[in-house]
Give the backbone structure.
Amino acid sequence: MTWRSALARLLRFWRTSLQFRTVAITVILSSAAVTIIGAYMSVSIGGNLFASRQEQVNSEAVRANLIAQQIFDATDDANPVELATLGVQVQTAVASSTTSPGGTGIAILRSDQPPTPQILQPTSSRDFPDEVVTPQMRVAVSETSERVFLQSVDLPNDAPGLVAGSRLTVPSAGLYELYLVYDLSDAERTLGFVQQTLFAGGLALVALIGGVTYIVVRLVVGPVRLAAETSERLAAGELEVRIPEKGEDVIATLARSFNGMADSLQQQITKLADLSRVQQRFVSDVSHELRTPLTTIRLAGDVLYDQRESFPPATERTAELLHTQVERFEVLLADLLEISRYDAGAVELDLEPTNLVRLVDDAVDQMGSLAHERGSEMFVVAPGGYFEAEVDARRIRRILRNLLGNAVEHGEGRPIVVTVDSNATAVAIAVRDHGIGMSESDVEKVFERFWRADPSRRRTIGGTGLGLAISLEDAIQHDGHLDVWSEVGTGTCFRLTLPRVRGVGIARSPLELPPQELVDAPPGEDGPS
């Protein structure tokens, strides 16, 4: 697994899990707060420790300076041997006066001055680090007006330290400098222990906050998740499922409200299902009962229609009208039965691989004579490609008859172009006429049941007003879609787009709407049919 996929999974988990997001945000914010507080406390404690040790070192340095000065002042006149003895005595007395832990060395150095009668040789303890007393510090000690000069240094063992410098006056020997070096490792260890304690305590606090947040969020999110799962099961048709009701808090109130809503929905759905079954039963029974008298009327009408020439003109016209309306009634009855099947969800497709170009050619041939009577020429434009798709040929043929019939009816005798094209995922058929067209408001209603663009218009084809509604249902049943484009005075184009394999999504339609068609195609392979 690459880091990109891991990051993508983490982001997806972040978006989908309210519990994880809440706990993560709480832990992040609490970690930031604990870090800021811990850093402030660490800096404050470190500063206080250093200030305390600095004050202690300053007090001891002042006391050591007084002790050393008293020893030197007790001897006004001393020879070099006595001065050397005094130096060792001062060093011992100063070391004895130091009570602070961490003292590392004492040194007495001669200041820069004119020659004197006597000279006290510089002396220092064995462990005194000479390199920490820099020339700059010696200048600062000799020039300071304070009794003691303090400076932070790094000792040879990489430990922090403080150097205390002060001036001494040795009778007959002049000015000298007393340096005391203190090791602050003890303060550093104390600060390190405090920082470790703060770090461990901060981690424990953040973990505790995260755990408490997880438990609280789980108590809240758990019922919400259960409600979501119950909603999905209800949406899937499990109308009996409910949320357990426990306690009297707001979650229990939510559960009772949800269950009450589910009960109401179940009652309404059951009632609607019963009404739907009654309606379907009624339509089925009425259709079945109508077929018998309709068949009788059809037979009688055919007899009268065949003998219409022997009747008076008025009776002849009546026989023709009876024949036409009986045919229309049969088509209307068939369409109503088909619509009732779609409403009941009882439609099943008989899918098989089909060459849609041949299907289009057959439909154009069947409608060719009617188009010729209306003065329209039909062209089939098939650029070539995949074409074959898994469809129910009977239902696609019915869609084509409806679309071609509408094109002939409203094409005003102008050319009608049927374009077929396909890509790797879809097949599209577009039927384009150049007739009267429709307004935008009419386009929005074109697939409504029993709707007609111009009811007063004389119709050559006796439609029922259900053709396009059934065509749309057929397209949806194939996981496809039926679109329309139209402009008044320019014409109309219907585009049917179907997946080549049912269940595989359509990336895009192979045809634009309206498609770029060849209207004045010469007779030939893709010419007029």
Remarks:
- The mean pLDDT is 81.
- The longest strand covers residues 160-170.
